[in-house]
Amino acid sequence: MDADPNPTRFRQLMLGSEPTFADVLSCVFDMRQHESTTYLMLLDTSGCTVAELADGLDRDRSNVSRSLTTLREKELVARERQLLDGGGQVYQYTATPLDETKELMHETLDAWAAYVHERIDEYGEDESRA
Q1: Which residues of 80-107 are buried (b: 16+ CB within 10 A; e: fewer)?
Q2: pLDDT digits (tens, 9 = 90+) for 23-67
Q3: What is the pTM of this model?
C-alpha cells in the first residue's frame, strides 16, 4: 500500500482549525479531496457502480473511475464483479469499513512518525549533513 502522509499537507492540517475526517483521510493517504469524498459516499451507499457514483457525486465517470483506482491501491475500496442478467458485467464498489480505515490511518501515521524519528536520530551521525 502506498500511503505516506505528505509533510506539507500534514503541516497544513495541523495548523488548520478543526479539519474534517475527509481532510485527515486525504492527508494521511496523500489523496485528493475528491477521492476522500468518493470513499465517504461509498461508506453510505455500499455496492455502487461507477455510473451511480458519478451521478451521486456529480462528476464525470472517468474521474470517478480514477478515484476508485486510487482508493483500491490504498486498500480503502474493494471491487466485485457482478454478471448482468441480460449478459455483460458491471463492477460494484464497497468502502473498507470505517473501523478498518481508521486502523489503517493509525498504522500509516505510526509508521511515518517512526520514520521521521529515525531521520532525526540519524542526523549528525555522519559527516555530510544533507
Answers
A1: eeeeeeeeeeeeebebbeeeebeebbee
A2: 889 988 989 999 999 999 999 998 999 999 999 999 999 999 999
A3: 0.79
Cell of 89: 458485467
Q: Which CATH entry fits the domain spanning 7-119: 3.40.50.10330, 3.90.1150.10, 1.10.10.10, 3.40.190.10?
A: 1.10.10.10
- Condensed to tens digits (0 to 9), the pLDDT of residues 97-125 reads 999 999 999 998 898 888 888 888 988 87
Here the cell at position 81 is 464483479
Phi, then psi, of 64 in degrees rounded to 5:
-65, -40
d(C-alpha 60, C-alpha 54), whole Å: 6
Domain boundaries, the chain: 7-119
